[in-house]
Amino acid sequence: MSHPSTPDISLPAFSASLPESYRRNFAPTAVAQHAVLARHREGTRPEVGIFTSDRPGTALCVIAEDRPGLLATISAALVLCDLDVIEAEAYTRRMDGAHNEAVDVFWVRYRDPARRSKLIEQATVERLREVLADLIEGKLSTPPPAMPGVPVATPSTAETVVRFIEGEDGSFTTLEVETGDRSGLLLSLSQALFKQRVQIVASQVKTVNNRVYDRFSIVEFDSKPISPARRLEIQVAVLTAIDPILEQQISARTPSAPPAASS
To answer: Which domain holds residue 75?
Structure first.
C-alpha cells in the first residue's frame, strides 16, 4: 500500500516517466524495486534502498526531489557513511504537475579495505538515508572531498582526460572524464560542477582496474546548453578538483595584476 501523502505509482507509469536509457539498463525486477522506493518517498525527504543487481558491490537506489547539486549532496552522504562508489548512474524522472524526481543508482562498497568484500548492511542504508536527509535540509555540513585522516593520491594530469563531446545540435552537453580512481572522487567532481553553476541532468560513472570513466550530461542552471566559451572554465575546474596540485601550477602561471599607480 502506498503512503497516504504519496500518489499511487504504477510500474508502467514509473518506467514511462524515465528516459529510454534507464529502461534499457535495468531489468524489470530492479525497475519494480525502484518504483516501490518512489512510492514510499514522503514530501521532500529522500528514499534509499538496496535493489537486485549482478554488478560488483551493493546496488543502492536513491530517489529524491531533483535540484541542482543533488549528485554532490548524495556523494557527500556516501563519504560521510564511509562508502566508496564503484559505479553510478543518474536519471531524471519527469513529473507532470510536480517537481522532477532524481532516480540515482550507485554500486558501492565499504571504504575500509577490511570490509570491502562484505555487502552493505541495512543499518548502513538507513544511516545513509538519514545523513542525506540532514544534508538536504541543511542540518549537516557537506564534508571536504578529502576526509581527515584519509590519504588522497592525486593522479598525474598526464593520466587524466577531460573533454566535451559535441551534441548533434552543435551544443556541448556531454562531459567525459577519465582518470585514476580515489576515494571521494565523485564528490570532488560533482562539487566542482555545482560551483561552476552547472546542473547534471544525467551521469554514468564506472570504475575499471582503478580507472574511472565518467560521463556527465550537463546544462547551465537555467537549462541553457553549455556554450563553447564556458568549456575551458569548466574543464579547468574539473581538472583542479581531480588534482589540487594543478591549481597551484595554474595560479603560478597566471600573471598577477600590476600594482595600482600611486596618486
So the answer is: 11-136
